[in-house]
Amino acid sequence: MAASTTAACYDAPEGVDVRGRYDPEFAAILTRDALAFVAGLQREFHGAVRYAMEQRRKAQRRYDAGELPRFDPATALVRDGDWACAPVPPAVADRTVEITGPATPRKMVINALNSGAKVFMADFEDALSPTWENLMHGQVNLRDAVAGTISFRDAARGREYRLNDQTAKLFVRPRGWHLPEAHILVDGEPAIGCLVDFGLYFFHNHAAFRAGQGAGFGPFFYLPKMEHSREARIWNGVFQRAEKAAGITPGSIRATVLVETLPAVFQMNEILHELRDHSAGLNCGRWDYIFSYVKTFRAHPDRLLPDRALVGMSQHFMRSYSHLLIHTCHRRGVHAMGGMAAQIPIKDDAAANEAALELVRKDKLREVRAGHDGTWAAHPGLIPAIREVFEGHLRGRPNQIGDAAAVGQLEGAGVGEEDLIQPPRGARTVDGLRLNTRVGVQYLAAWLAGSGSVPLYNLMEDAATAEISRVQNWQWLRHGAALDAGGVEMRATPELLARVVEEEMARVEAEVGRERFRQGRYAEAGRIFSRQCTAPELDDFLTLDAYNLIVAHHPGASPCKL
């Protein structure tokens, strides 16, 4: 308690202003040296990030004008060249099943590390609502997890949670380049969120990975939302600066890039080439990829998606994306990771639970047969079934990187530009509009209240599925899509959406209960979601638009006035 009474503020270096609530536990993360490290990253790379974000906007304007995403002729030599990424580190050769989840609460982190998965991806991005409390508790949790000291006592149950002798390897996903951190200012501007997430975690934990005494022993990361190799080049520069500052072997840091935007699928070789000394492969971030498909083609009425439940891996453009990713990764000697299984156990219905598990098994069998080296699960209850599928196919091998006969490896070689953008097929319905609205509003209400990973209708939803719901509604309304309403055709209009929102809000209130509905942020979420679905211009990200609603500044938190 001494720290809080003698200096209830953060000891920030020159030019850094911390405006989040002071807490002695957070102060152990936000040390003067750690903040100086983050500020150094911000000052060196903010210009390149700003340029990259402007290039994103310019590319979108070209797509809006009718241009289609293509492979870049200027980088043909990279795509055609005979080069490879750095060898796969033995510590992460086997990634057959990875579990994902937010970096807080503490018990969830412990359970994920103890889950039996090979990797736990601790998330500061789509599965975490970026409140100050969540971000700082997440950093505390991961520091203690890396040290092996993390524990939690559930007083209500009289249970103590600690790490098992064997735990999952820890990967960390910082936020995307586009998201700010409004609670930390550097030279008067909000810091770039991912540099805060990466910088604090790396500064406090890199030393624990030195036991490997060489390249590829970590720390390990997942990198989200990239659209172009220039963004990977920035990350590579960040890694090089961090390794040099820490005095660790170049190439120690390894990162898997989530290919979850349509433009990025045309840049996979280029992204790997930029990160070739730090690469741990690519991942099919398929839910965000669907979101990006809609956003990229928002002005193209000939590319309207069907109901989101119909946009699975059997769609040609999705299957082509998966196969090209496998071919690209294995050609360059790195992991090709599969997508998320979002199902959660259905405890009160054994038959429904088994049916859901069977869907998971089929999806994972498709992935491993195609050539994926591992996959994602949202819940520990899925891990035994997924491990059984992957391990049964791999038969003792840690991965399929050297398997030239895999389906994706063979078919991926023939994937062309048209395959990657082929319009999906399927019905568009009023029920689909209703489900989008119901899921989008409930997710946003939870996000505003501080939860970024939300169980809804037996699926674990994060920001990606809420984004699909939002942009699909917007696209249908923008182009007046014909929707089936039980055999009757209706046009998607603002008036129809207003009626759907009113009716679905009533349904949500009935499902969650009147008291919880009134105490929660459902009404606010409904207004935001409706506004975004009917906006003249599509906002890039739901969470970026709503971010200021969860920012809580505490003037005087820094610098210390002693």
From TrEMBL:
Residues 428-550 form the Malate synthase C-terminal domain. Belongs to the malate synthase family. GO terms for molecular function: malate synthase activity. PROSITE patterns: MALATE_SYNTHASE (PS00510). It comes from Paspalum notatum var. saurae. Residues 14-76 form the Malate synthase N-terminal domain. GO terms for biological process: glyoxylate cycle; tricarboxylic acid cycle. It is an enzyme of class 2 (transferase). The active site is at R173 (proton acceptor), D462 (proton donor). Its EC number is 2.3.3.9. It catalyses: glyoxylate + acetyl-CoA + H2O = (S)-malate + CoA + H(+). Pathway: Carbohydrate metabolism; glyoxylate cycle; (S)-malate from isocitrate: step 2/2. One of its GO terms (cellular component) is glyoxysome. This is Malate synthase. Keywords: Glyoxylate bypass, Glyoxysome, Peroxisome, Transferase, Tricarboxylic acid cycle. InterPro entries: Malate_synth_C_sf, Malate_synth_sf, Malate_synthA, Malate_synthase_CS, Malate_synthase_TIM, MS_C, MS_N, MS_N_TIM-barrel_dom. Residues 169-405 form the Malate synthase TIM barrel domain.
